[in-house]
TrEMBL record:
Membrane topology label: Multi-pass membrane protein
Domain ABC transmembrane type-1: 23-282
Keyword Magnesium: no
Stored Pfam families: ABC_membrane (PF00664), ABC_tran (PF00005)
Gene Ontology MF terms: ABC-type transporter activity; ATP binding; ATP hydrolysis activity
PROSITE patterns: ABC_TM1F, ABC_TRANSPORTER_1, ABC_TRANSPORTER_2
Domain of life of the native organism: Archaea
Transmembrane segments: 20-44, 77-99, 180-198, 263-285, 291-310
Locations listed in the record: Membrane
Alphabetized UniProt keyword annotations: ATP-binding, Membrane, Nucleotide-binding, Transmembrane, Transmembrane helix
Domain ABC transporter residues, every copy: 358-590
Source species: Methanospirillum hungatei JF-1 (strain ATCC 27890 / DSM 864 / NBRC 100397 / JF-1)
Keyword Transmembrane helix: yes
Protein name per Swiss-Prot or TrEMBL: ABC transporter related protein
Amino acid sequence: MVTFKEYLHQLRFFIQGYEYYLFLLLILSIIIGLIDAGSIALLYPMISVGFQINADAIPFYGVIEYISSLIPMGSQFVHLGLLFILLTGISLILQLAYWKIAFIFQRELIVKTKKSIFSKIDSNDYKFFVDARQGDLINLFNQSPYYVQQTYDRLLCLCTDLMTSILVIVMLFLISPGGLLLVLIGGGVFYLIINSISKNISEKLGNLQIASGQSENKVINEYITGIKPIKALHASEHWGRQYIDALKVYWDKFAELMFIQRIPIIAINSLFYITIGVIVLVLYIYYADNFLVIIPVLGTFAAGMMKILPKAMNMGTYKMELKNFYPHVTTIHSILQEKKYHSVVNGEKTCNEIISDIILEDVSFSYGHAKILHNVSMTIAKGSMTALVGHSGSGKSTIASLLLRLYDPGSGRILVNGFDLKEYDVNTYRDIVGYVSQDPFVFNASIRENILFGGLFSDKEVIDAAKLAYAHEFIMELPEGYETLVGDQGVTLSGGEKQRIVIARAMIRRPEFLILDEATSALDNISEAAVQKAIDQVAKECTTLVIAHRLTTIRNADKIVVIEKGRIVEEGTHEELIERRGKYWEMSENKA
């Protein structure tokens, strides 16, 4: 259970760098409260003067009389009436300024929070995405920051309402302690009106929040779905830019939209008091002789009632809402402060090329308590095609993840150019690594954009990569060629077509080291043949590791390594392994 002190600490965490907004808003709320209390206080002497009642007994009447006398026109009553209207108008302007600043503050706060979440999530190890549920991540991006913004919105409302209510109550008490009872009598009707307005505003805010989610869900869903190739190909910056652009769709308009929605509420209150002033002036001019003695008290305390009762009732609502919001605030705060998923520490060496064999030395790895790899040692010869085969669950894809440095070995090491992979800047290393998985990540954009994958390459490079992946021919048969939109998750393409686009994506970066992880396992025979042709071609361009379950894809490999239950059991060429009649031969006989 989070204590109130811890909650305040979390709230301060989110506004770091924006404290000046709160200071300015606090000053404005005090000034607005004083002016509102003063404008209501003016009603008593206005009405009293109209009845020719001595108002000198009011503690602050002398100050009011002095200020009103500075108006160089009309009678004392006119002075008071004009001062009332002037103060109410000033209050209106200050309230508009207050909420304009408040909404700009909230906009800055929520955009900063969303950017911080994206940056934090992107900096986490790949294991974070394995452990987390996709729905929770989507909610974290789209819903939780909204509750942070709403928390500050309620706190700002609470601040202004509380300040104004206190000052008005003090003013009413100074006029007549017994008159405060009137505030409790007639407040119900106006409360219903304000509550109805508030309910309508809440509905509009809900619709706006839905709109904001729609502008961001596409990018976040693609980012999370494709996190493995995005990480492997060092393309996070592109998705970061896309996410910031998505934020602009809604949040650039946030301050203006919220400001416009706040104007009717502010105007209704202000116009109400201006109307009172006008009515009293009219009554004085036309019906001065018929003023009742009770009107000064009724007028002043009715105005006070209309001002403070809705605010007092809102405070209970704010308190309840703040309690509902704080779990979301706590969740975001804990995620932004969490250090659990930062075990993959970046090195300092730059890796621009592969100049020697890639070697795994006694590599072991565990997922939690389950040990996946047991002292695995193997060599991926530079410029060759090495195949890694084994049954599902044998540890093949884990080796791929280690070679992409999505994880670090529990023990042992991976040597690249003679240095431990941990010593390299992981981004420079991933820039020279190509990766193709068995589940090709294709996002809702054109084929050209899918091949570029956030990179900056020429049209010629795009076409050359597509030709290398044997994708150019089918792309040119499409109505719009490379500009053809593929739909969500590439729904308009076949499995083989998607896989060849992903291979082109990998090859456009001219990788020094290419990892093909079960690239044909989910394809039919025709698609597999097309993709296999592409694999055989691209394998000539770089050092290649092909991970396969189906042996038909790796017969031409320079070396085949067989893994079983996390251990290397044999290695050699296809012919050598068949002659040994070992595990590979058994798999071949079973047509695995």
